[in-house]
Structure formats: C-alpha cells, structure tokens
Amino acid sequence: METKILKVDEESLALARQIIRGGGLVAMPTETVYGLGADGTDGEAVKKIYAVKGRPSDNPLIAHVHKDYDIEKLVYVEQDYAWKLKKAFMPGPLTMVFYSKGVISPVATCGGDTLAVRIPSHEGAQAFLKAVDVPVVAPSANVSKHVSPVTAQHVYDDLNGKIPLILDGGKCSGGIESTVLDVTEKVPRILRAGLVTREMIASVAGDCVYAEHKETDKVRSPGVKYGHYMPRAETARFTAEEKVAAFAYFDEAKKSGRKPVLLCETSLKEEIGERNVIFLGEDAREMASNLFYDLRAAEKTSDLIVVIEPRGTGGVYDGVMNRLTKAAKKCNG
Ligand code: TXA
Ligand code: MG
Known about the structure:
Layout: E1 4-7, H1 10-21, E2 26-28, E3 35-39, H2 43-53, E4 62-64, E5 75-76, H3 80-89, E6 94-100, H4 106-109, E7 114-118, H5 123-132, E8 136-138, H6 152-159, E9 165-168, E10 179-182, E11 189-192, H7 198-205, E12 209-210, E13 234-238, H8 243-255, E14 260-264, H9 269-272, E15 277-279, H10 284-301, E16 304-308, H11 316-327, E17 329-330
Parallel strand pairs: 1-9, 2-9, 4-7, 6-10, 11-12, 13-16, 13-17, 14-15, 14-16
Antiparallel strand pairs: 2-3, 3-8, 4-8, 5-6, 6-7, 10-11
C-alpha cells in the first residue's frame, strides 16, 4: 500500500473522510503526538489499528472528538468537577476517562465499561474530526513500544506501506501524550502524567491524586504496564546527581569505538565539553516538546543514548520523567 503524506487542506480532508468512512486508517496531527485514527464505532476498522501497530489487544484507545461534539453521546459525566475540567482544559492535552455509553466499539475499550475521551486543540486535528464527523479512536501513531511520533515523517518511518494517509500538521508542539485522568470517582486520579499537570487539575477540581500502581492492583490504565517509548538504540539513564558517572560512561563507550550521544538539559552545556550532545531544553515544557523528537534523532545517529535526568520536579517534569523512565534503563554508573 502506498502511504501518502499530505498537508491538511480541503482536498486531503475529503480523502481522509473517505478513508475513515470506508473503515480505513488515517494518521493525524495533534498538539501532543501524532495519532493513528479509525472510526470508533466500527469494530473492524478499530481492529486494523491493533494489527498495524502490533498493539496488545487489552490496551484500550482514546476517542477523539471535535470541540462542538456533545461528549454525553459517548459517556456518562457523573462528577461536577469533570465539567469544570472540560471547560478549563478542553480542547487541549487532557484525556478524561468516564463510564461509557457503549457507542464506541468494545474493540476500542477492550470490553471495559469506561471510555477515554479527548478533544485535541490542534487546528489540523479539529479540521479532520469535523470533516470525518464520527468519533475517532486513536493511539499514538508509532509501532507498539517505539518512541511516539511528533512529525509526519516519524509516522512514515514507522508505518510506511501499512496505512494509506498521513495528514501533515507540522511538528507537534506539546511533544508528550495527553494527561489521562480517571474522572469516575469523587477525586480525579491521574493514570498518565502529561502537560495538564496535577497542580493545574487540583486548582480547578479541588483535589487530584496520582493513581498508585501496585503489583496487586487491577490495572486501570493498561498502557502503563507495557514497554514504551523505546528508542532503537541502547539507552542508559542517570540522575542529575550522577552526571559525572554519566560522562564517564559516555567516554568509556566512545573509547571502545561506539557512537554515544548525551541527552540532557541545556544548563549542563559548560560541563559537556566536546562530547556529542542533544540538549532537551531549559525548562519542563521545552523538554517535553523536544523529548520524543530528540530520542528519534538520537537513535538514527548513535548506538548508545546516555540520558541525564532533569533536576526539576513536579508540574510537567512529572510527565517528562514518566516518559524518560520508560525510554531509558536506569544505569548506576
Ligand atoms: O496525546 C495523546 O493522548 C495521544 C494522541 C494521539 O491523542 N494518544 C495516545 O494514545 O497517547 P495511546 O493509545 O498511545 O495511549 C492511551 C493511554 C494508554 O495508556 C491507555 O491504556 C490509556 O490511555 N487508556 C485508554 N482508554 C482507557 C480507559 N478506558 N481507561 C483507562 N486508561 C485508558
Ligand atoms: Mg502510545
């Protein structure tokens, strides 16, 4: 199958509509990462997403709708704070998990009684969702376990020949996936950290907690139990305090003939010297925005990625650290 990359315009949107309405897949830009979309009401179409990605069949998908869509067609909104959160953060990088009304195929919800709903703010995503005029279920448009894509080219690198159309909406500004928030109970619970932070949610909803994942727990967000965001090159992660050990690790690898690259915050510039480096940025938002882009750049040019964690904590750093801990194995120097 030929995979077309087309800028979002009237013509490509008409084609996207035809493909989605015909039970096919279209990759779409969002403000977080690129998504791989199908008509959420069409179980056969949704199955193609799992097949193309190689995604475990017990990991449910997020339903994406445009900003004028009535989400009560899809879910029961039982908590008042959920409406406040919707008003404050949607459209945007927040996904809320509600009890489902069953309109979306059980293939997408993995037979569960809940549905994750997201209203992306990206103009291209809004135009696409309006054009197709059905709820679109979409995971990140990468091969399962690989780093999420933040450009149309990244999607192409993973899915060339497997899908007919990638809508090109430029580089995603957010850079990490949406915050996934369980809003079925009295206190909202973060299942996956992201750009809408615990602090931001608590300021609107009164309270907000992180879901604790214990071995014995029934998994609430199945995605968290799988390998994720793994670059094609070996990766090693050091804390900010272990930076000297990270430099030594890098130097040792270089000496043995490997092609290592450091990935760290820009403030370490002076200490890096001549070492090959990709700077993630100055603050958490910048680092989130660059993280997947930089990991994909690093895996192309290097055979060892040495990550030094940022020093900051809380806010968007929680989302950045969540991705880093999955992308890179902890190394003890
Ligand atoms: O920013 C994003 O959220 C991107 C863009 C494309 O919208 N999408 C994305 O989808 O990251 P995916 O499939 O890669 O991650 C969805 C996460 C997974 O961890 C999944 O387990 C969780 O959301 N999830 C989906 N439906 C759920 C549900 N009903 N209950 C709990 N967790 C759910
Ligand atoms: Mg994903």
